[in-house]
Amino acid sequence: MLIKFRKAVSKGSRFNQIYVPRSMESLIEVGDEVEVRLLQKKARLYYSKGLKNLSEFKENLIKGIFSCIDGIAGAEYIFIVGSFLTEKVNYNDIDIVLVGSARSEEYAYNMLTDKFNLKFHIISVQKKKLEDLLRICPLSRAMLSKFICNRDFKIPEETAVDKKHIQFLLMMPQDMLEIRLGSRAFFDNIRRLVTIEKFLKDKNPDIKEINDDLKRLIEPNLYEQIRNNGEIDDNAILILRKIIKAKLKSIMELLENGKK
Questions:
Q1: What is the model's pTM?
Q2: Are 176 and 144 members of one domain?
Q3: Please, are residues 244 and 190 in contact by the beta-carbon 8 Å criterion?
Q4: Which of 32, 122, 229, 246 registers the highest number of CB atoms within 10 A of its CB?
Q5: How confident is the model over 185-203, as pLDDT tens digits?
Q6: What average pLDDT does the segment 209-238 reach?
Q7: How many domains does the chain divide into?
Q8: How much is the pLDDT for 15?
Q9: Containing domain of residue 209, as a range?
Q10: Same domain, 80 and 127
């Protein structure tokens, strides 16, 4: 007679032990061969260094997210990043990075939205590609400056300046000097420039420090307008383009003279 049961594994003093429910003592005896099947992996939260503990609600939600998509083929690491971790309520969606996933972002997005009825932003990247980006890409290092992961993960300390990659990242901010998009584009591109500048000055781009720098650079009312993609006038655009020009000049000097 084959007996199946669900019971948590408890670590014994010498080896891992499976505790049989009292109601099954007459059915399962010492020496019997039983089947143990993992039904759902217990979700653990690995905080990045310096990230404050989240509320119980947010932690439980993240555990639910990990449990929902942990079985996606090839997903070695699942990261929660972005404003969901650093803001109490002022976030628009939940940002997720899948590392090593063979499935598409759309597949994971559909699973999560069907289960939680929340907005998610999901990207996937192969592990080797992420390791390369964390060495040379200011934006990738900033994105993972604060995270919660389903497994232990350490950000590599070694960095290198790849001028071609930095120049590629500068293309959009440079375009903002000529083209006019929504005000949120100014916010995102100035933040991008602050991130690159910090990286070139041998500073690990920390997302909180980047946002603090933005608040110092931009007058409070204008900061809130562009952060929320509000309407701005021509004078505001002149002010924002002046900031972009100054940051571009600083970055080009750092690239020319090397990291300082």
A1: 0.79
A2: no
A3: yes
A4: 122
A5: 999 999 999 999 999 997 8
A6: 94
A7: 2
A8: 53
A9: 163-257
A10: yes
